[in-house]
Amino acid sequence: MRAPGFWTRPAGLWSHLLTPLSWIYAAATARRVAQPGHSAGVPVICVGNLTAGGTGKTPTVIALVQRLAERGTVAHVVSRGYGGRLDGPVQVDPARHDAADTGDEPLLLSAFAPTWVARDRALGAKAAVAAGARVIVLDDGFQNPALTKDLSIVVIDGGVGFGNGRVIPAGPLREPVAKGLARADLVLTIGSEEVPLPVSIPRVRGHLTPLQTGMDWTDMPVFAFAGIGRPEKFFATLRTLGADLRGTEALADHQPLTPALLRRLAAQAAKLAAQPVTTEKDAVRLPANLRGQVLTLPVRLQLDDWTVIDAHLDRLGL
Description:
Blueprint: H1 13-33, E1 44-48, H2 57-70, E2 76-79, E3 90-91, H3 99-102, H4 104-109, E4 115-117, H5 121-130, E5 136-139, E6 151-157, H6 177-181, E7 186-190, E8 203-210, E9 221-226, H7 231-240, E10 244-250, H8 259-271, E11 275-278, H9 280-283, E12 295-296, E13 299-303, H10 307-315
Parallel strand pairs: 1-5, 1-6, 2-4, 2-5, 6-7, 7-8, 9-10, 9-11, 11-12
Antiparallel strand pairs: 3-4, 8-13
Family: Belongs to the LpxK family.
Catalytic activity: a lipid A disaccharide + ATP = a lipid IVA + ADP + H(+)
Pfam families: LpxK (PF02606)
C-alpha cells in the first residue's frame, strides 16, 4: 500500500474523522502486546518500529548480524515473510525460493545470515534453535507478542519521524509513541534529522551509505524505480552520487513487479535513453532473466557509535 498523504502532515480533517478508529486500533495493539510470549531459549533481538512502512529495519538487521558475526556469533533471522506465500517455518533458500515464496526482505537477508520465514514467529524461533541458532534477530515483530524479546531496537526514519503523531488509520503509528518506547531498550534514528522523543531512552544514530562496488555513477543516464518505504531517499542518493537522473518511478512498498509493469518501466527507460536502476530489495523481486539488465545500488547502515548496542550484546553474552 502507499501511505496516505495526510499521515505526514499536521493533523487535518481526515485525521480527525478517523481518530475514533485509531482508538480502537491502539486498544487492540495494547491488548495484543500484553500477552505472554514464548521463550526461545536463546537471546532474541527484535528490530522493529512504531510506524507502518519502511524505516530502515532491513539495513539495520544486516548491520546487526554482521556485527554479531564480527563478535563470533552467527545469528539466525526470523521474519514473517510479508508478501510471500509460504506460512513456514521454512529456511529461505535462494536456490529454491523466490520473492513470491518468502517475500523480498527475507530473500535479501538470506544472503547475510540463515533466515527463516514463519507466520508464527514462535515456531520460526523453535526451528531456528533446532538448526543451531545461538541468537535470533527478529525482523519486525515489535508489536507481535509471540516471542519474549531480550533486546528491542526501535528504528526511526529521521526524515519522517512519527508523521502526524496519530495511530492507524488517522496516522502512521502502530501504537502511541510513549507506550511503544516504554517496551523498547533503545532507539536507532537513521538520518541527520532530529526526532523529539516523549520519553528518556538511549538513542543511537546512523545513516545509510552506498556500498562501494566500483561502479562510477557520475553522469550516468539512469531511470530509477523503487518500491520501498520512501523511494525519494533512493532517488536522492543517486543524485548525490552524480547520476544523470532522467526519470523516476515511485512504487508502493513491496509492490509486485508484474510483467506488465516491467514492460512499462523498460519502455520508459528506453524512451529516456537511460539505464534502469533499482534497490537491492526491489532487485530480488525481478525475474531472473531481467536481473542482468537492471543495475542495483546497494546501501548499508553505518552507525555513528556502536557502544550502546555492544553493551547490550555483552549483557546477553554475545
